[in-house]
Prior knowledge:
Layout: E1 3-10, H1 13-29, E2 33-34, E3 38-42, H2 43-46, H3 54-58, E4 63-70, E5 75-81, H4 89-95, E6 104-111
Antiparallel strand pairs: 1-6, 2-6, 3-4, 3-6, 4-5
Amino acid sequence: MGGITITRYGDTEKEVLDKLREQVVHGASLGLYPDSAVILIRGDDLIGYGEGDAKEADKKKAKLFNIKLDEQALTVEFEEVEEGRIFHVGVAARYSKAPEPGQILGTVHLHT
């Protein structure tokens, strides 16, 4: 058993999702499959987090995308959802650099 947390950065959601799509397809070719939703975090949403009005800070949240992997065709589609399974987000948060303002961090976990 093994797994990997993948983190990619970009300027647009499409750019980050495309990078993660490539990684999911590559992982599937090696026997690793997504066991979590994709999480996107905007650097702009982190500015001032924890400062000022706590209610405003609570409005900042990540976007979640469920993954639809067609193992035969090796294609990946993403579906935005309000709730999803998220694993190892703490790993990505702890060991990855925070996204800069204007930048988006995307992360997903793959497992055997």
